């Protein structure tokens, strides 16, 4: 049994390459692509917080600090793979190809925000913690049954590992050797509860030992470590090697949600001292000569524009349709539900 | 495979369940059977007996002992092209999967505006009366009939079992399929060999009558019928309705009957508080208030946990208790 | 500690909850508060704010994110000398603990013939109307009122919240204590500083009237009251009953009122099918059939999953819908 | 991390001592005491199966083959400890001191069978799999809070490890360092499902690694291995060292319950080839000169008599009291329940 779980990283905090076996793979193209996604989702995230403060969005769950984990993992996926996110993984889903307008809509309580773009298989964010893990296992298992090489990824946090559904999903994944990646973002907290109170184990990675499942613990703020680890796990899954648990150690800079006040339970000043995953990547890029100020500036303003445009579209979106309250409960509505709907709409003068 | 038309076999209810499963496993390659002991063992009630031999380990799947895992994983299978037919060993052991059913099975269609449906059938034996160990005798159907997005079906005869189960498997939405353990081998009746469906959402008026409407499902249908027979000797004519589908309720059949008889007695094994009887009562209140000549009577389990089996005969409604309620209602 | 008599403080409902917790934590050393984020964070609604500082980490316990674990472990604590007061963060997240509540919390007294009781309180915020994220707005009280062995309480005012919560904590049996999120900070009222209890099982007739009985609980009490005020301008006199305890129901208060008015409108947020309204309807059917001048009306959520918040205002009963039902009932 | 989980045994299959460091502890008194309990519960078990066949008992769950695991573990307990058994652990509870008549009553659907003798803390058997694990953790935690040295034991099977409640209980046990023993009887099957389909891990013991909890894998048919391992775990728990997971590898000789037909899923002939834990102990005792034929015969006939007497008492027990259907639902029955009871009893002429 592999039982030591050192944190794997390719870049150190300062952006210096520590795993030189990978140097050749750290190309400008890749760096720029990852940077672009990370900057894009950060722009989205900050805007969303902003909108919430102005009352233009509902309660919102920010992910600042976790961009490397989300982008590195999602960027490694193929279009036909399946993604099962939580409420904090819209950085990953945006990277995977989710529509930005719909992502905003979700946070405005619009069910349209649950519906993925086109042909992408993105499940609506799981709000009840850990429940999406067995779903991902099932979807992955279905791919295996079909003989495809597609995989599913379940995103979940450190707190989620305490739920029975995590355990049952892990067990099914290993028993049926489903091509699923259990991608854990260990950001150290479940709302206010620090990981030391969440579990008595030193790592989350070691939990895979209970299932005879391969696992790895990585620096979740090192986008390269995330990307290449994910790639390896994906290859294993696509080639019939079964599931992998990845523990990406990261940090949430901000509040749990906009309704949360982190200063109640931790020192936010010290929290901000952590190395920002984007800055780390930038440091690497600068060092390598991949960082062209002008190019970066263009990217940044492109993202600003994209996000502003998405906000505009979101805010001019057709108002919620009361029919949607009823119409999707069943493929064909039972008579009694039709009656409830008709009565309601009639009384409202519709 | 040409199936001879109109061939019939005498079957028990549990055999009819197996027959329905075999039928759909044969004609729909996306169907899978998942559950604890459904493989070699053929299920603790033998409902899946012989299916693994016939369809292979790949389609008849023994899972770990993990109801949330079974249902949760089946959601993933269901949204990705398969039709999981899940066996929960006893209804009393479905509760670990309650969250998955409540927040996902029943809501995914709504949450994705119809992009994903969950065409899953969950089969569960339920009910008391067979001297089973503790927690094996629950009839908590109302926990599921009250869950928007889920249909609930409960056959009382072998014929209905086959037709309703095939309909459930063909339904694009999730269906909880309740099988009365007491009815599993209670009697045999001819069941057609070919595939047929019984429409979900329609009740079955099995005996016509003038004075009182009896509404029951599962094992309680026989109890109602016995009471009706006894009532007839007293000159009371009962109409007996086998509900067949517990959600959605068949408003037309029920209200037409009650409007004719002016009286209703509802019989179920579950306790009175929160029982499906109250939904039926509400339906009658809403549709037939002016026709009622007496309060609607309910004959149910008591508001206590289903007891260990030494006391279960006191818990389950009996023909005598139903008859008393009929008499009370007629005398009102 | 001598508590000054008759001192009162203006409090919101959530503050009254905290006050009740503080009261019992002070006078009963066996009480413990367990839940997710109840410690330093003081709970996501601040219901346990300051308690950990006051009573220590040993009594106000942040648990892992694990509802079945919290409730299951609390069973062990409860049968072994402690009184766990569990916070489930939102009622929509209680389902993972459903099995523990269903097969153990509610049944242990019966299963041990009274040797072990489970004096546990489970507090859970519930209901829609505050633009909360998905699954945060369920009002599935009927899943618990239908569970023999469990009591269910739901205050609508700060005063009631304190008195009922203290009563719940002192109860030798398990109590689910539902707190309407919409009511948490809706208004303040004077709450006595000393300990007092409000009897579990008794409803509160908050407005007397002659023509129609309105029955509601939690956030719907205000909706009922608004409708009653509006109805008064039309010359319809409503009696408003705040149910306070959802199980066991107060048969006397309800039937007395309905027998006086001859009409009833029940208001709740949960969907119609399987809602507690149907139990009330059954109670009225059983006790007051001959007094009824019109069918009992129900104003409820629809038989759909609680929607994402952009549509929640269409889902939740409004004074307008209640008024329509009152008018319909009076006009019948 | 301790990651190898060899099966610890003191006796080999033939009853030869393999762990000679323990030889001095394997006294005649201990051997005889353990033998006595094992023989007693086997006598009970066989009688129960017999009664069930004659229709004098309801469905019954036999434990033949697991006597060493159940006796060795329960014999190590103190009177004031807590026991949380399953439906198959009445061998353990009888050893701990449960009343034999009540144990029979339980299998006759009598709620009286759920109520433990006198001051013993024995919970009614958990029927819903794994649900008792968190209960045991809570009861143990309560003892710790009281500053006592009492512990709780949760009994559970291999199949139970798949349930969420196992996981959540393990996590709570480790996070709160509860003085609880998680005593697993791995009998290779959950009804018909062999352990290889239940889990992908090689052992159950290794599942403790997920929780940073000590664990050990032992030969559950070696009553000494069970007894001394349990003792060690109990000492750890009593002295503040927290929980231990014990995997006792054993085998059920018979059916899952009297309603089960094991030949549907395994070769019962080959199953019977396994070494019987009682025979193994007898072989050891003979070898050591601890086995006095006459003494053993006396014990055997004492157990026969005890069991026959218990059956008699059980069968002449007062008939079930219908009041018990209602009276224990609450400490004080709500009015409506009183009404239901009165109505029912009145109609029956009571
Ligand atoms: C079953 C359930 N219980 C409680 C909650 C409330 N809740 C929402 S997020 C959260 C913390 C989750 O922590 P973690 O898994 O670490 O993810 P993170 O929020 O840190 O990304 C909790 C307790 C929930 N959503 N679902
Ligand atoms: C939650 C739940 N699901 C299913 C069952 C039905 N059932 C009873 S015993 C059993 C197998 C248990 O296997 P294991 O834990 O290995 O214990 P053993 O019976 O082998 O002692 C099953 C599936 C149950 N009692 N509870
Ligand atoms: Mg976290
Ligand atoms: Mg086993």
Provide a concise account of the structure shown.
Chain A has 350 residues and is α/β, with parallel strands linked by helices.
SSE arrangement:
The complex is a heterotetramer, with 2 copies of chain A (350 residues) and 2 copies of chain B (332 residues).
Chain A (H helix, E strand, L loop, with lengths): L27 H26 L13 H9 L6 E3 L5 H7 L3 H8 L13 E2 L9 H15 L5 E6 L6 H12 L4 E7 L2 E2 L2 E2 H4 L16 E5 L3 H16 L5 E6 L18 H5 L4 H12 L4 H23 L19 H13 L3
Parallel strand pairs in A: 1-2, 1-3, 3-4, 4-8, 7-8
Antiparallel strand pairs in A: 5-6
Chain B lengths: L7 E4 L1 H15 L3 E5 L15 H5 L4 E3 L4 H13 L3 E5 L10 H8 L2 H4 L9 E6 L15 H4 L5 E3 L4 H13 L4 E6 H4 L4 E4 L11 E4 L4 E5 L3 H14 L4 E5 L2 E3 L3 H11 L2 E8 L4 H13 L8 E5 L10 H4 L3 H13 L1
Parallel strand pairs in B: 2-3, 2-4, 4-5, 5-7, 6-7, 10-11, 10-13, 13-14
Antiparallel strand pairs in B: 1-8, 6-12, 9-11
Helix pairs in contact in B: 1-7, 3-4, 9-13, 10-11
One thiamine diphosphate sits at the interface of chains A and C.
Structural write-up:
Chains A, D: It is an enzyme of class 1 (oxidoreductase). Chains A, D: Residues 41-321 form the Dehydrogenase E1 component domain. Chains A, D: GO terms for molecular function: pyruvate dehydrogenase (acetyl-transferring) activity. Chains A, D: Its EC number is 1.2.4.1. The complex is a heterotetramer, with 2 copies of chain A (350 residues) and 2 copies of chain B (332 residues). In chain A, helix 6 (164-175) links the parallel strand 3 and strand 4 (180-186). In chain A, the strands form 2 sheets. In chain A, strands 2-1-3-4-8-7 form a 6-stranded parallel β-sheet, with helices on both faces. Chain A has a two-stranded antiparallel ribbon with strand order 5-6. Chain A has 2 domains: 20-317, Rossmann fold (3-Layer(aba) Sandwich); 322-349, no CATH class. With 350 residues, chain A is α/β, with parallel strands linked by helices. The longest helix of chain A has 26 residues, at 28-53. In chain A, 43% of the residues lie in helices and 9% in strands. Chain B is of the alpha/beta class. Helices cover 36% and strands 20% of the residues of chain B. Chain B has 13 helices and 14 strands. Chain B has helices at residues 13-27, 51-55, 67-79, 98-105, 108-111, 142-145, 158-170, 181-184, 220-233, 251-261, 276-288, 312-315, 319-331, and strands spanning 8-11, 31-35, 60-62, 83-87, 121-126, 151-153, 175-180, 189-192, 204-207, 212-216, 238-242, 245-247, 264-271, 297-301. In chain B, strand 2, helix 2 and strand 3 form a beta-alpha-beta unit. In chain B, helix 3 (67-79) runs parallel beside helix 4 (98-105). Classes of the chains: A alpha/beta (350), B alpha/beta (332). Chains A and D meet through helix 6 of A and helix 6 of D.
